């Protein structure tokens, strides 16, 4: 059974952290409606959704993915690169406790879950403004006993690794070659996004379905032509907060 931990949109989302985007108004009712539709889409593909209560004083807390990396053997509680986000970890830890042994990234390492792409026993970690080399070293130590291999990936031009690359089928990545180099993922096939849609590389694969944003029709066509079935989910309001589909849930097997 697949579980998704999500969290309702904070009323303070308009005060979110921003790194690469200019601040523009976020319509809170629309953001909340879209997020509920996202949760409904998860349920429609067989995921059991466990929503957490909103955190009024934590603007970015809807982006639960950044607070943990969940693998079969354990859950790594991260230490986000933005100090304002670190208080989010307590409630995420509580939510994960029934399902996994918890281990923690310790200071001075910083790690956002959005920088972590897990493919089998290979874990790719973005070297971004939010995740530092100490985090790579700690994850190697923490996860090596379970057979995982850690590889640091240079990222440029975007917030997180998964802004630039996600897995869309067995052995295939969707990738923005301007932000990440395909040669850093040896042995994997890749599809390049349409260059007119730089944020189009973020997709959420669940089984044989890929949840995808309607804002990127050209890249969606590339996916469909490759035989990848997409289901459209609009999270455009949270995109103004540098969010994306993978950011808004922690999905794992119970």
Topology of this structure?
Blueprint: E1 2-7, H1 28-44, E2 47-52, E3 68-70, E4 75-77, H2 89-96, E5 102-104, E6 116-119, E7 122-127, H3 133-143, E8 149-154, H4 161-164, E9 165-169, E10 172-175, E11 189-192, E12 204-206, E13 209-212, H5 217-225, E14 229-232, H6 236-239, E15 250-253
Parallel strand pairs: 1-2, 4-5, 7-8, 10-11, 13-14
Antiparallel strand pairs: 1-15, 3-4, 6-7, 9-10, 12-13
Which short descriptors sum up this protein?
single chain; 254 residues; alpha/beta; 3-stranded mixed sheet; 15 strands; 26% strand
- Under CATH, the topology can be stated as L-arginine/glycine Amidinotransferase, Chain A
Strand adjacency order, main sheet: 2-1-15
Could you report the average pLDDT, rounded to the nearest whole number? Answer: 97
Structural class: alpha/beta
Report the CATH superfamily. Answer: L-arginine/glycine Amidinotransferase, Chain A
Which CATH architecture would you pick?
A: 5-stranded Propeller
The first-to-last residue Cα distance is 6 Å
Rg from alpha-carbon coordinates: 17 Å
Helix content: 10-25%
Please state the overall shape, judged from the principal axes of the Cα atoms.
globular
- β-strand number: 15
Which spans have pLDDT < 50 for at least 5 consecutive residues?
Answer: none
